[in-house]
Amino acid sequence: MQLPTVLSSTSIGINFEKKQWLLKANYSTSIGNTLNTSIRNTERTGAYRTELELLEESAIQQHNASLGVNYKIDSSSQFALEYQTNIGRYNVDITSSNKVFADQYTTYDADNIGTINLNNRSLIGNYKKRLDSLGSSLFFGAQYSGYILALEEQISEDISIDNISIGNKQRNIVSNNWIHLLSAQIDHQYFISSPLSISSGIRYSNSTNKGDLNMMNQVEDELIFVPNYSSTTAFTEQLFAAYTEFNLKAGSFDFRAGLRFERTDADGLTTQKDQTSLSRTYNWFIPSVLISKQMNQYIGVNLSYNINTGRPSYNDLDPKVFYVDSLTSKQGNPLLLPQLDHSVKLAINLGQLQLDATYYRSVNAFKNITKEGLGGVNSVVLYRENVDADRFYMSATIPFQKKFFTAYFNYAINWDKIIGEYGDFSSIDLKPNHYFYLYTQIKVKRIVNIEFIGNYFSGRFDGIYEDFNSYSLSIGLSRTFLKDQLKCSILANDIFFSERNAGTYYIGAYSVSYLDKSYSQYMRFSINFSFGKLKEQNYQSVDVGSDEKRRIK
């Protein structure tokens, strides 16, 4: 039985201020269910072809809460302490059907019933002091975050060969992950004069990721351990960074130049079969430059060069194998290297029209690939690998507003080209991606506001991925009452149920066609009531561990 895709969210917050103290508390909850479908058709040249369909239904209970206090020590300094927690429970039912066309016709029909329990928490402390009247400041922040994930799965799989059943397989999987993050940061900004300042700082972070996965096959009344799909992993990573930036503002001219040094020491062990040591060290010097000039009240020019880093998620680094069926699995890659994006960007403002163009040289970009799996020559495993890529991006954005009409339009074009052994342009030429986004609001006197939201993605080919086009259209109505204190609105999202992630990617002898759809078609009703204007709050809390937290997926 399919569950209706209904998800409700509720939140409440309170702010309280008295003398030097400011208190802030928030609570939110999301309860409901979601529906996702995936289709994967895999072909290995001259060997076999598979057709895999997945239907995932999830029942969600998620609770988020935070409590923070801000204490104003004196007129120039303040201290903040905040506690955040997230507790979630997800009941997931995945039904899969996999057909294999080879020397024999084989089918694998599996039902995976799983429960995921999450318990995440963070403690954040900040101190900030203004040092002089020009704006010089000193900041110190520290944070601890802990994440616990527990997964239990019961899998029932029916297998047949040439339409003759060969029996049912029962499997039991238990997996746990514990991640601990510790971060500390010191920043100092010194104004030599009003237009000239130097910023510098140091940062340290330490992450520990421990996980295990045990898979058992049930044979009659006995559970048999499966070593290929079972593993224990312990991974630690230490990051030290030091950075400085020079800032100069002179009238409409703005100049910034910075240099950042990062050292990363990673170490780990795993019992996963055929995996190597996880130990490695990186030393990077990362420069950045920005030049900005406002020519007049209508024209502004901005030129910058940056190196941005992107680190793989902890799940992507974990070599444990996630079972889908006897021939399909997913696996982390402990040898993934961090991604470096060298970018040169030119941005021009012509009145309200914004134009920008950016060239990227991506080193060690992350791409999903397919390779032979653990279940034999017909099996596949989804894997992440590093590739190099050239990328070029241009966009144009213009807002438009009249008394009863508001519009916002964005157009972007992207070229991506994979460089190296994985990129292949022998059968398909490089094809750019065009993206259009339009938001329009029409006010029909004071009766109702009508909203139209549309976007279109044209597809692309970058040497691995040939993405297909996708589009969506949403329509909304809203009206205010009681002198605009009460607002009622309704939104019909993706009314044609056309949002999708679809295409084909090519890796060596493999070609994989994919189609992913989620519960994008829904009706959203909302009621907002304002009791009056809120007093401006001075509460400040800086999440100095946000970079590490984003790597948890």
Query: Structurally, how many domains make up the residues?
Result: 1
Give the CA-based shape: globular
What is the CATH class designation?
Answer: Mainly Beta
DSSP summary: helix tally: 2
Look at the helices and sheets and give the structural class. Answer: mainly beta
CATH topology: Maltoporin, Chain A
What is the average of the pLDDT values?
90
End-to-end CA span: 28 Å
Roughly how much helix do the residues carry, as a percent range?
under 10%
Keywords:
single chain; 553 residues; mainly beta; Maltoporin, Chain A; 2 helices; 28 strands
In short:
This protein has 553 residues and is mostly beta strands.
Structure, described:
- 1% of the residues lie in helices and 74% in strands.
- The chain has two helices and 28 strands.
- The chain has a 28-stranded mixed β-sheet that branches.
- The model has no long low-confidence stretch (mean pLDDT 90).
